[in-house]
Structure formats: C-alpha cells, structure tokens
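Field reference: sequence -> structure
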Amino acid sequence: MAKLSTDSLERALQLLGERLELQSSQPFGLVVSGGSALLALNLIQRSTRDVDVLGRYFSDKEVIVDPRPLPDELLAAAKDVQRALSLPENWLNTGPSDQLKTGVPDGFDSRLVRKDYGLCLTVYYVSRFDQIHFKLYAACDQGPGKHLMDLLELKPTEGEILTASRWVLQQDDSPGFRGQYLDMLKQLGYERIISQLTF
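Structure field:
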C-alpha cells in the first residue's frame, strides 16, 4: 500500500473533497493532527500511512467535537479515494480523538491552520506549537520512535519545551510518568527547565 508524502497527501484530500461534492454531501470540517498535519504544513519530510482525525470542527459554532463515528458519507468517499490511490484501508481514521477527553493546550483552536479542499471539505491542521505538546507526550508515553524523531525535527525552543512540559504533566500526574518524563527531558538536553516546573 502506498504511503502519503506531501504531494500524495494533498492529492488524496483534494480527491476526497471532490468525491464529497459528487455525493452532494454536507460540508465537513476535520481537525487533523499527527504526521499528516506535519507534512501538510511542511514541517517534516517523512511519509505517513494515514490521516489522523482528532475531531470534527463546526465553524458556525466554533466547536470541536469527538469525530467518532465518522459519518457514512465521509467513509464512503474515503473508501473511493483509498481504492483510487491504493492507500491503506484505514487511511482516514480517528486514532487520536481520545485526546479531546483529556484536553488540548490552551488556545489550541485559535492556532489551527485552515485549508479548504473544495466546497465540502475543510481541514484544520494542528499547529506546530501544539504538535510539540502532543509529540512530547507521545514520545514519553509510547517510547522512542517516530514521535521523538518528529519532535527533534520540529526543533522546539527551550521556552516551547517548558510550556509544553507543563501541559504534558497535566495529562498524567502519576509519579511514575512524571519520573519517566523528567528523565526524558534530561536525555534530550533540557535539564535546565526542570527547576521551572512545579509539581
């Protein structure tokens, strides 16, 4: 199955928007995070297997809601795109949507980067600043791998790491996670900010 690069991601979403228009679909607003958002914003160069839908965004109410389950008409259009471009079966998924329950960083909505794909599809990409928060949390929670590599490629400043760390430590206040997280900060060379964190 094909992976998504910056160009093929753009093609897939354009095609998804076209399919929705052909179906005379209602308009959809999707909040997208993860590797596909980083690709769309030209923040990383690696490919990704999927588009992670964090939430549905209703612009008239300016609210983000849990996207699960994705509507049938959106899934049908995504299936057409999957077949046309030989993408993985679950290329459009709601993997990260649990994050809405535990909370997003302050000001998250105002930093979303909007892009329209026709009349029926608008994608709101999670900003670089908020991706630093998510990647820090995921790198500690899931261990070394793509999240840590993405974080390093984002080249966060010490101030960004400090702000993100305060949010990360609210996600899991257990002593075990805290100790693991502080160890990770030391390994990444951010030991100086630990004294500025309150527990």
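Note: The chain has nine helices and six strands.
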